[in-house]
Amino acid sequence: MSTDVTAKSPAPAPPGGSGPAADGLLGVMLAGLRRNMRQYGMLIALGLIVVLFAIWTDGDLLLPRNVSNLVLQNSYILILAIGMMLVIIAGHIDLSVGSLTAFTGAFAAVLTVQHGVSWPVALVLCLVIGAAAGAIQGYLIAYLGIPSFIVTLAGMLLFRGLTEILLKGQTLGPFPDGLQKLGNGFLPEVGPNTNYHNLTLLLGLVLIAAVVWQEFRDRRRQQEFSLEVLPTRLFLLKLTALVAAILVITMLLASYKGTPIVLIVLGVLVVGYGYVMRNAVFGRHIYAIGGNLPAAKLSGVKDKKVTFYVFLNMGVLAALAGLVVAARLNAASPKAGVNFELEAIASSFIGGASMSGGVGTVLGAIIGGLVLGVLNNGMNLLSVGTDWQQVIKGLALLVAVGFDVWNKRKSGS
Length: 413
Description:
Blueprint: H1 20-35, H2 37-56, H3 64-89, H4 97-114, H5 119-142, H6 148-167, H7 177-184, H8 198-224, H9 232-254, H10 261-279, H11 281-291, H12 293-298, H13 303-329, H14 340-350, H15 362-381, H16 386-412
Helix pairs in contact: 2-15, 3-9, 3-10, 3-13, 3-14, 3-15, 4-5, 4-6, 4-13, 5-6, 5-13, 7-13, 8-9, 10-11, 11-13, 14-15, 14-16
């Protein structure tokens, strides 16, 4: 007895791109997006927040002047967020950065205003003071084994008190012009009159070329090592979105006063720390001790030394943020830096850091800081009260951490 089997050819896809082929492509793209949700989730959220507030404020959010102010107002939080991300990846926390920010700003004011020290010398001395403060805390945490929460909580009280002592409870200023430019200055005008800031346009084009080159280079290296990469169309969509975002920001900044000097500082920090965390041995050791400390020790990682340098680095960045915020306000205040540590911690967790350590990126910290910055700026434009602003930012942090927990459980299952 024989059975005839008639093979059926697949039905042709209907016009318009639907059908099995299109559904398969869409499925691949969605699967790639789901696999990279931790990496791209907050970036998508940032884009949605910008679009929503741009609509709600009738476009005021994306006015060139407001975009420039957004960079200047959040620059010191973004600087702190970079250092805090490294601390959290290593499995620790730092509650002292806000007070250390205020202390270094006060120290700069005493040097330049009261004692007439030139601002470059004062800047270097403040960075040294920040490094020393971070080194002391790092030593207590790494080599004496005191929990980072306790050490940095003590540091928060100590540096706040020292700030009050230095300033004697008063605001001290103004700063020299050179130091003011760190917080309020812009790159100079060059070239012919084009109704745009030419140097900003040039920097934007260079940045676009660098991003495109880096993305293709990273993709090629991943393919060489047989690592998973995004589907081609999703990769091109991501690249197009990045280029479009850089181009829009470039045109907005070039339409006003150009690129703020502090944005150049931030760009150098992001590139430098991003390279260290992705490619350098020290960055890999930070991930190792935060992800699995016993295994890192067995692998020969000098965990105490790494922890010490992580907190020393945090002290330097806190000092830099203190100089930026003091230059921005053109004065040192005893109340400066209040809640800066909470903003930096929130930026890190919103940007993808994990409570258990071992997870996070420098770019993620910047994205998290921008999410908070856009929320603050947008709510101010809408005249939302500070009480509701605190509620909304608290919910944003809760949602981000909840998403992290849900994502890890889903990955584990």
